Amino acid sequence: MEDTTIQSNQEEAYFGLPAEVKFCQKCVMSNQKPNAAVENKHTSKTRKETIHFDEDGICDACKYFDWKRSTINWQEREAQLMKLCNQYRSNDGSYDCIVPGSGGKDSCFAAHILKHKFNMHPLTVTWSPHLYTDIGWQGLQNWIEQGNDNFLVSPSGKTHRLLTRLAFKNLLHPFQAFMLGQKYIAPKLAMKFKIPLVFFGDNSAEYGMKKEENLSSKMDLKFFSYDTPTLELGNIFLGGVSVDNLIKNHNLTLKDLQLFLPSKKSSLEAAGVEVHFLSYYFNWDPQENYYYAAEHCNFKANPTRRDGTYCKYSSVDDKIDDLQFYTTFIKFGIGKSTYDAAQEIRCNKITREEGVALVKKFDGEFPITHHKEILKYLDMTEEEFKSTIDKFRSPHLWKKEDGKWILKHAVWHDQNK
């Protein structure tokens, strides 16, 4: 196999990223992609654990997809899911599981198949985006109209906005507050409403962590809980700032932050809360989920592609979505088109050559569509926005020529050798 290592001359690599940039020989992902981590431990000093490549230059995500394609008996997995549902299914009309989601393709698929194939009665739960897109709001309303009861949680706009601004300034991570709320709210409501079974869609471990991370259907409690007698405010970070600092210096109270804080592990265990990934039980394929949701749930894709990618049906709910993927392009050299193309290559929807062409055409496109509205939301000037962005460009990934920033290493560079 050809060598896909790009020599970086050992320039400084921020965030603990590998100094030597490599691209997977099967998909378009680079070794700069960070793995899933506990978000409330994220600070400006955090060093990222990244996707692993084997000696043949194949990333863990591709290896996992090859393994599950050749090894897993999906009929047996569905039988396991039926057995699980049999344990929790209500016989009095009450809710028997929680399905968090936005009304997008994956949550439409999840709620519909649990309700109609497994005879469950899900309560759908939605964490409100920062700034709804028209198609995102229509999707939520459609999800409800299709026969799903929904609990919409809208956090304090003041708190959500402040945490998002801090996360952008300190971490270049404008989606962090949303991600925390989205992950925490379902287990919280599971305890409150005594509905202990929660179904998320796909396990992020499928996209780059070791195979062993995918061998259980359950989400590790560490991602949404704390395991100390009391919440240690100095060790929980939101927007890169400790909770005690937020209270002391940012005019917030513990009450303001409750929805953004993890639950106590012992309380979750006492309530019997279990969070499962449906991707463990089904051969998860985002494009097939889109087809299913369009056929069975009247799901509509965005009428046009989103900034930074060719895709119309994923990450379409929040106006900040496009900015989030632009920031991953700045920090890691990986934008939305790379994520989309890598996934579609693994699912045999496109070839690697097609994926490279799509990444070259769309990755890193500036998210102009909602830019002015986002600046207003972040209470930020154009100059402050640009200087923050540039501060997070790692020297091993970026160079400046004639006043323009250029990505040093790209997957199409290797293809053109």
In short:
By secondary structure, the protein is mostly helical. The protein has helices at 60-71, 74-88, 105-116, 134-145, 157-171, 176-193, 243-249, 254-257, 265-270, 286-297, 321-332, 336-346, 352-362, 371-378, 382-391, 411-415; strands at residues 5-6, 21-22, 97-100, 122-127, 150-153, 197-200, 225-226, 237-238, 241-242, 263-264, 274-277, 398-401, 404-407.
Describe what this molecule looks like in 3D:
The strands form six sheets. A three-stranded parallel beta sheet has the order 3-4-5. Strands 1-2 form a two-stranded antiparallel sheet. A two-stranded parallel ribbon has the order 6-11. The chain has 417 residues and is mostly helical. 41% of the residues lie in helices and 10% in strands.
Q: Helix segment count? A: 16
Biggest sheet statistics: 3 strands, parallel
How many β-strand runs?
A: 13
- Poorly predicted tracts of residues: 1-9
- Give the helix proportion (percent range): 40-55%
- What's the end-to-end separation, in Å? 14 Å
The average pLDDT value, as a whole number, equals 94
Q: Indicate the overall shape.
A: globular
Notable characteristics:
16 helices; 10% strand; disordered N terminus; 417 residues; mainly alpha
Question: What's the structural blueprint in terms of helices and strands?
Answer:
Layout: E1 5-6, E2 21-22, H1 60-71, H2 74-88, E3 97-100, H3 105-116, E4 122-127, H4 134-145, E5 150-153, H5 157-171, H6 176-193, E6 197-200, E7 225-226, E8 237-238, E9 241-242, H7 243-249, H8 254-257, E10 263-264, H9 265-270, E11 274-277, H10 286-297, H11 321-332, H12 336-346, H13 352-362, H14 371-378, H15 382-391, E12 398-401, E13 404-407, H16 411-415
Parallel strand pairs: 3-4, 4-5, 6-11, 7-10
Antiparallel strand pairs: 1-2, 8-9, 12-13
Helix pairs in contact: 3-10, 12-13
